[in-house]
Design goal:
This protein is an all-alpha fold and 79 residues long. It contains three helices and no strands. Helix 1 (2-22) runs antiparallel to helix 2 (26-46) and helix 2 runs antiparallel to helix 3 (50-77). It is flat and about 45 Å long.
């Protein structure tokens, strides 16, 4: 059961990564990239690495997404 869940989550990581590359909007791509990182943190929890999962969720998904969104907002403000 855990193996199937892990495979499904890894498929979700791949699909969301491909979606992030294919999206036309930069903001949507950044949000989907954060979703990819969130899927990865859930996989780390399932694989019994909660410390890595917490780091991935906070830094990879949260902080990085916020920094990218801030940078997009600042660069679009100068147009």
């Amino acid at each position: 059961m855990i193996t199937l869940l892990t495979i499904l989550l890894c498929a979700g990581i791949l699909i969301s990564a491909l979606l992030a590359v294919q999206l036309g909007s930069i903001v949507s791509a950044v949000i989907v990239a954060g979703l990819t990182s969130l899927f990865a943190s859930v996989v780390y929890v399932i694989l019994a690495a909660p410390d890595v999962a917490m780091t991935e969720a906070s830094i990879g998904s949260g902080l990085t997404t916020m920094i990218f969104l801030y940078a997009v907002r600042k660069t679009r403000g100068g147009e």
